[in-house]
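ok trying again, last paste got cut off:
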Amino acid sequence: MKIVIPGGTGQVGTVLKRALSAAGHDVVVLSRHPAGPGEVHWDGATPGPWTKEVDGSDVVVNLAGRSVNCRYTPDNLREMMDSRVHSARAVGEAIAAAARPPRVWLQMSTATVYAHRFDAPHDEATGVIGGTEPGAPGYWAYSVEIAKAWERAQEVADTPHTRKVALRAAMVMSPDRGGVFDVLLRLARLGLGGPVAGGAQYVSWIHDQDFVRAIEFLVARDDIDGPVNLAAPGPLPQRAFMRTLRAAWGVPVGLPATRWMAELGAFVLRSDTELLLKSRRVVPGRLLEAGFTFDRPAWPEAADDLVRRLRGGRV
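nice, full thing came through this time. structure:
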């Protein structure tokens, strides 16, 4: 198959391109700064010569959007919104104009669309969309608005011959340098991998190989469209998540951090505490109902595998 991945140069795109290319597919990455074979320039906002890659392709997996690993200033939040909505709109326009449109368009979204809560998990049928929940900082609601606008840009695209799936993805854990697992493991190795603000907030995640397998599953299943949660079925509180990660590496102790310490650390790292403090208890209802099986459904086994691959130098 020919698979086009707009915004495919980040961690998730690297994981996906590597696996799909190894499986024998023709993978084309759309990038603002193409740097190698199989990469084609686009601006992430307007149609251009890149649209010929979409015409005649089999699958589009749009991952484009500004990284959320930044300070949530008004300018950065607006750039997060614009980069996601404009790129999704441009992809929709390219598909609508194609003489031979792809049969499926997988559009990245985020598990952050769900409410900050501790009492019950979110699946696609019963999950509560966030933005108005008590106890959450007001600016967190803008992250939910970004997610909703991102999905809406795909939903309203006039692509009647292309099935559309919105990927409400949790954190994708891979041993690649610079990814979220790399950052969390570095904290654990420094002795900083303890509970943050008590550690009761839930962490949702998915092993990189299960992420790829889920993408392949959704491409093959013509009966699935709309929002799909891409998350392992075992989310767990942050304190347990980090304790398990420390055990996988062999670090006995992780210093706890209060909320204000987390704020200070996020400021130093030019990131935001929403990534640490929001409780994301998300489960893959539709995937499980459709018969998808996870190779790494539980975090202890997933963490052990990721550590083994990292220590073995095999990504």
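cool. The chain has eleven helices and eleven strands. The longest helix spans residues 74-97.
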